[in-house]
């Protein structure tokens, strides 16, 4: 049936309380009073909450044109815009409505972490306190001030790194501690996080290394050489950098972190083997602005994806670790696959490969003991060792069969 | 080889271009422009209609039941009339001059845009604000497009953009529930206008000057 036609002058009915805010679990008695212009009685009315009719048992007529409803132990609001409590006339028409905001006051925001990109700005993120769900719209404000200077500042750019985050783009001082905190507020109250104190220099991160190049190392089947440039943005500041490399085969989602140290337990051609030694890479071979490293223990004839990231850990001589940058975009390269000797004996060819690998195993074991880290020294040593091997028949017979 | 392919494409294009009849004389370009603009405006209304479906769905879910129920039909209170109504008597609609037809659309969407922008400032969730902002940008595009059609046909634009979102005599909603109802009717009216505009621009398309129609036939005869 069509809804009631409405007189332009007055609202058909009035609900009390109008748009109340309530704590979860509380009870409420609401009344609907029909305007005198309308020929409706209390018995012509009924209530709905979020579209669902409320039981008549909870109604009570408080007057000829006033009907009340009792709501007990309210749950948190179904939507943040408020629960819709509506007073209807018998034919279903809407006479009036009231939005109920049922929820909890906010909890103290926690886990405030901040980082500065190249010392130019500060981004902070936080978590909304243990419960999280307040059922009410909760506003978060990030505030900060320099430790011994009175004025509070408010962060303006929100949601830059997720929902609970804020970005301070400028006017930040170095070499001075900042106090940072987050205020959460909703209709039921306010909560303030603990104050975090930090110096911008302690939380510096930077761009990922640029110009990451991955290339083969001559004909070596199980090695790739990775080169990159240190991030230019911090070049004017005194800092050292740590780098980390991660790499994976093309069709695997499992990243191996590390570098020249071959992971124990990785069998040749073995699949799904896990790397038990995940070691961060120390910086080596800082040749000018370039840095490089060698990956070893790789599968021949395989495409690898490589990423590098940087940690500017000694800005202005600060002892604190910086924050790791994002990983660089993946760069791909493939290891060479040795070619079988033409007209060769296949079984022997296979054996030759096994021989080569075994030799390399032995070589890198040797390198581990005698030469630290990734270095170009390795390839020269290896070549020398190969030459030495070829000259000495004895050694070859010990290692494997003659091709 | 790749180079061979590019040459092939290039020679084909040259041949095609060389065979086209001479482009229409410049003095007809204005009407051609209007024809294209009308088509573009029509397309834009269809696009907005599609976008509105998603936006309205999200927004009405935010308002909660009963607003998001398909058969929801609340009373249309007098206060809601500050939003211009699309529904109009059929004979009246048929009899509209091109100028009046375009002007009605221009005024309506300028007004609706204002109200939507106010909504954008108040709404709770980040997702909704994002969708609303996107829709407002598209709607702004529609207003500009209609303005472009009017200019190219030599009609003056209706006086000034819409007044403040809450003109005197129609105060802002006195409570949150009534505000939800206003929001509901705003979206409903927007939907009705987009349906109507599609018909308005379809009608305008058919009334494109005959000179342009001839030119088009010549182009096709090639």
Automatic annotation (TrEMBL), chain A:
PROSITE patterns: FN3, IG_LIKE. Residues 108-209 form the Fibronectin type-III domain. Keywords: Disulfide bond, Glycoprotein, Immunoglobulin domain, Phosphoprotein, Receptor, Repeat, Secreted, Signal. Its main location: secreted. Residues 331-351 are annotated as: Disordered. InterPro entries: FN3_dom, FN3_sf, Growth/epo_recpt_lig-bind, Ig-like_dom, Ig-like_dom_sf, Ig-like_fold, Type-I_Cytokine_Rcpt. It holds the Pfam family EpoR_lig-bind. GO terms for cellular component: CRLF-CLCF1 complex; external side of plasma membrane; receptor complex. Belongs to the type I cytokine receptor family. Type 3 subfamily. This is Cytokine receptor-like factor 1. The gene is Crlf1.
UniProtKB/TrEMBL annotation, chain B:
The keyword Secreted applies. In complex with CRLF1, forms a heterodimeric neurotropic cytokine that plays a crucial role during neuronal development. Also stimulates B-cells. Binds to and activates the ILST/gp130 receptor. One of its GO terms (cellular component) is CNTFR-CLCF1 complex. Pfam families: PRF (PF06875). Forms a heteromeric complex with cardiotrophin-like cytokine CRLF1/CLF-1; the CRLF1-CLCF1 complex is a ligand for the ciliary neurotrophic factor receptor/CNTFR. The CRLF1-CLCF1 heterodimer binds SORL1 (via N-terminal ectodomain); within this complex, the interaction is mediated predominantly by the CRLF1 moiety. The tripartite signaling complex formed by CRLF1, CLCF1 and CNTFR also binds SORL1. It is found in: Secreted. Belongs to the IL-6 superfamily. GO terms for biological process: cell surface receptor signaling pathway via JAK-STAT; positive regulation of B cell proliferation. It comes from Callaeas wilsoni. This is Cardiotrophin-like cytokine factor 1. Residues 1-25 form the signal peptide. GO terms for molecular function: cytokine activity. Keywords: Cytokine, Glycoprotein, Secreted, Signal.
